[in-house]
Amino acid sequence: MQPAVRESAEASIEPLDREFPRQAAVVLAVLGVSVRLFFWFYTGRTWEDALITLQHAENAARGLGLTHTPQAGPPLHGFTSPLSVLIPLVGELIHRGFGLTLLRLLSAFLGGVSVWLGMRIAHAMGLAYGFVLLVGGYIALEHQQILYGMAGMETQVVLTILLFSFHTLLEFNPNRVGIGLGLAMLGRPDMAFWVGIVFVLIAWRCRREKDYRPAWIALAWLAVLYGPWLAFTTWYYGSPVPNTIVAKALGYDNLWYLGHGKRQLPAMIWSRIRYYVFGGLGPAYGGNGTGFQLFADGGAIACGILLLMIPGCLRAWRRKDTVSLGVCAFALTYSLYYLFAMNFSFGWYVVPLSAAIVLVSASGADLLLRSTVRHSLRRPVSLGFATAYLFSLVLVLPMCIAGDRHVQQFVEDGSRRRIGEYLASVAAPDQTVGCEPLGYVGYYSRLIVYDFPGLCSRKVTEFMRTHRGNHGPQVMWEALEPDYLVLRPHEIPKDSQWEAWVRSKYELVREFRVPEARAKQMLYPELNIDRVFSVFKHKAT
Questions:
Q1: pTM across the whole model
Q2: Which stretch of DSSP H or E encloses residue 285?
Q3: Residue 19: which of 164, 132, 166 has the closest Cα?
């Protein structure tokens, strides 16, 4: 008997033409679609920000303009993702009230497509069988991967486009590459970083092959797909830059680390890693909208997956194939972007990043496996690793889905929707409301809302621009004096100058509160900041 020989990681990479696990991919894709449909029908979850975009689409379909609040003035570009408004707009044109339903149906279907594409990419990267299943299982069953798309956000659409764009790097057909980039820009403007990464890879290949035609072809497709949108928004709004981007740049301190001491920064970065950017790599719940709430492992599983990026990037560098390099560059670039260049990395921002990291980390686990385990044991070991990891995600999924159902019933429908409906019943159409959360209040009241940081308010954005040194929400509301204020308890501290000003100018007319008995049924209710609101009416109104 010959002694077992442990092959080097380079020599042991299996050929890419081995059989793709088609049956497993179909099963996981169908499972992904089924879980998403169940989530939708069971929870009815509608994310706050989805209603902001939907309101634009509904107004456009009814001839009021592609804007949030027609009575506030000329149309304002109050949404960030073009596809997030175009898809519901098509639905509203087909049938009134079908906009959000169309986006959800498409997101459910694309959940299965994403599973298939993710597994195809993992297989093409030469990963062991178990790691291919891990990628597909993560996309199909991880809570955040399900939540945001089925709650009406563009997240699932963007993820599918991103995976398609990754997939185009396999054959590097410039037509498909350009189409993927054009669709990515229609998904989210911050995909500009990904466009830059891909064109660096294109330039590298073109220089090596001394043929720059692929670069021009890809650029042409990007211009054909994204150019008309830039032209339309420039003509219609006066600028292709969404007001949401301007408002967040003015209102949020995105360079959050400036002004903090060196002793504080490590703890702050660690908190952002666990609770805001990478928490979704392990068992976590993001349904309260205040970051990721972690379960018993305290984020250890997510951190372990994150650390596997190191050998994953090493493997990509050794292989030098465009898809591995591209996915790795995406994961690194957007990790740094969300960690250090964005104050609030909301849960739906990082869903595509999480999927990319899982691809890179699965590649890293594959490299370690090939370096330490003999060939005959690689399949069972990779399957064992994938099973354990996916089990940790599936174990908490029922709790997360139940949590989303309770948030929708008790907070969104039971409180925030009722606030909007109440304001619609007592206020005139040209009256104004000051509050931080725009979605439910704005959608169900159809009033002019001075939200913070002014996502759909030209007045608020202008205030932010002219008051750079002191532009907090309280200062803004004092300056604009809306007819109504809708405030959470922490937004009106007792015995503060702000409370005194509110009491002198406004009277309390209603309070909306989730009863304690219901709050106890929620998942991490103490981290949901929307359980209590007070409505104040201006005394001069």
A1: 0.94
A2: strand 284-285
A3: 132
